[in-house]
Amino acid sequence: MHGGHSRRGRGASTTRGRGHGASGRRQFRGRGRGRGRGQSSHHQSFQFSRLNEEEDGSGGEESLGEESEDEETAHGLAHADEEEEASESEPEQVLPTHSYQTLLQTLNTSKRTSEPARKKRKLEPDTSTTKVIPLEVGGTDASDTPSNGDEAETARALNEEIEADEETEDAVDASIDSDDEEVMFRDPFEKHYSAATEKEIKEAAGQVESKAWQTTSSTSESGLRVARFRPDAPTKSSIIKSPKDMFLKQRILGTGTKVFTSLKSDEKYLAAAVFGYDDVLHGCRDVQNTSRLRDLSCLHALNHVFKTRDRVLKNNSKLSAQSNGEILDLRDQGFTRPKVLIMVPTKQACVRFVDSIVKLSEPDQQENKSRFLETYTQDDSDEWLDKPEDFRQLFGGNHEEDFRIGLKFTRKTIKYFAGFYNSDIIIGSPLGLMRTITTGGGGKNSKKTQDADFLSSIEVVIVDHANALQMQNWQHVDYVFSQLNLLPKDSHGCDFSRVRHWYLDGQAKYLRQTIILSDYLTPEINALASTHLKNISGRIKLQPEYPGEMLGVSSLVSIPVSQTFLRLSSPSAQGDSDARFKFFTTSVLPPFLRDPKRQKGTLLFVPTYVDFVRLRNFLSTSSEAANLSFGLISEYASHKEVLRARSHFLSGRHTLLVYSERAHHHFRYKIRGVKKVIFYGVPENPIFWSEVAKMLDVVREDDKRTKASVRALFSKWDAMKLERIVGTQRVGRLINDRGGDVFDFV
């Protein structure tokens, strides 16, 4: 398990993308916001869109709820859209006099007397024409402020009218889109969250807690292994046959249809589970399908957010229309507004998810987009052109690992950097989310108080590139999951009369859907699922049949290479590290100690940092290894240390080079001078087997004294990663064979 250490590859531990410290920028208080925050001092036409909202003093992304000075006190979707104007603290854009008068006349003549009355809003008092607005608060210079108080107030009133009309349109759209009761009965969203009774939920939750899962296994036409776990009798694996089977909202039906047509046959199994609100463990992610899986996940997230929002708007209309003596019990909300949590490893991965969300939702406006691009994007380095494709996909662009951002949706707008309690979707890294929870999201000088209430009503969790998150610090992932769906400590303006009963009963975790996308599954991912995935709808696990990564080595290396697997006896998973160390020091290392010169050019690949430190200490302090010259390359080694170790290894000054898996994950070094490879443990990522073995290609053909070889130590606890190396059909024999502990493949 890769725990206890967090690594930002390529020395990016303190980078914040591209947007800080632009020269010549005026600053009034706090820190600057980078390029693109200013506005022209003269407007040529009136615009209904508001300027970027006031950002909190901690930089926006650190804030949980401070969206503006006049913060929305009600979290719920029932009132958030109605109160959004009051929560905006930025100055309104005001049109020049002639354009304004023309538009006002047009609106007045086109206004219908039959339209519903607008909700009265409390307007901010008129401000002085000499008021100076700080750049980082309003994103405008003082010259942008209105020169006429009456025009400013009238402009605000027009914006108010437009927003109220938009809300009315929303309610109408919600009614049209959701009134078909037959469709509602078949819609998995309605069946999962509304159809089940309190008694049924409690009974199913009891079965989940007792782990009374009913399991079925099957194989798809292409060889994909599908396992289903349900608390009741498992149903046959389904497949999405048309966009209608996804029950998409009308506003994303067009883009959703394009996503559906791009899916491969196996991905339609995944789509059925995703839109059916099952928990998903998907171990088939790769560089070819990652964009399709991302679009599918974002489509589901948007569909969930829009259905939740429209249900609330529809019920708002019912409450407004009820008679005086009528009492309606409409339960359609959680404790707080955020409904979707997306965990990704880097800021650039966040950008890709946001791009997908924008592509699918097609908003008319995007507030704070320039700040988002400035803070989260970054150009690739030219020196990476020779790196593998999976490396470029993970570390391309801005690869910072400490971030979180809230996205808020209205009918026509996406707002970036929304306060968490006013957001619909939260995207962040495990490290960024963990820090937000433990510090309460405050700035450096604010009081540190733990606050996980913004996660109390999360209904869909998407974890993308889980294997990359494991290479950071898996404990952060586990911690974030432990904070999901807890009863909140504060009300945050919650209307408890609208909260669903299973939230009040503390059973939200049994309705939460979790989607984990990974290149491969690991014991840590399985343990997370066993501990935190309790969806009463069930769970589905998808993983491929592995042919074996070792089969491709011969095509990568121009010389013959023998591949040998050495099985060691390990009685327990907890004692595996001790058993492995004892086996290595007593069976593998002695030849190096007897005749170090004959072992020159040996690369020792170590999967975990804990084992790396243990071996380093032994080789440095043991009297037995006093005559053995060795070098070290870990993920924490400086650039100078890496260059020195590689140089001494190539020249033969170092007999042995100890190389950590996480160093290879973050940097993908191409080490020269390798004649033998020893895997202290099987690598978690099967690609690393081929990449390390390919280093043997530098062996000189005229060096007949040395034969290229690869040896790997393994125990029965390595079955999952060993399967990816030797193949699904062979792994059972290596684990269980009683004829010997050495297995050679030539």
TrEMBL record:
Q: Note the superkingdom of the native organism.
A: Eukaryota
Q: Name one GO cellular component term.
A: small-subunit processome
Q: Where is the composition biased (Basic residues)?
A: 1-10, 26-36
Assembly and binders: Component of the ribosomal small subunit (SSU) processome composed of at least 40 protein subunits and snoRNA U3.
Q: Which Pfam families match?
A: Utp25_C, UTP25_NTPase-like
Give the compositionally biased regions (Low complexity): 38-49
Question: Is Nucleus a UniProt keyword of this protein?
Answer: yes
What is the designated name of this protein? U3 small nucleolar RNA-associated protein 25
Its keywords, alphabetically, are:
Nucleus, Ribonucleoprotein, Ribosome biogenesis, rRNA processing
State whether keyword rRNA processing applies. Answer: yes
Q: Which Gene3D superfamilies match?
A: P-loop containing nucleotide triphosphate hydrolases (3.40.50.300)
PANTHER family associated with the record:
ORF PROTEIN-RELATED, U3 SMALL NUCLEOLAR RNA-ASSOCIATED PROTEIN 25 HOMOLOG
Lineage here is: Eukaryota, Fungi, Dikarya, Ascomycota, Pezizomycotina
Q: Where is the composition biased (Polar residues)?
A: 96-111
Any GO BP: maturation of SSU-rRNA from tricistronic rRNA transcript (SSU-rRNA, 5.8S rRNA, LSU-rRNA)
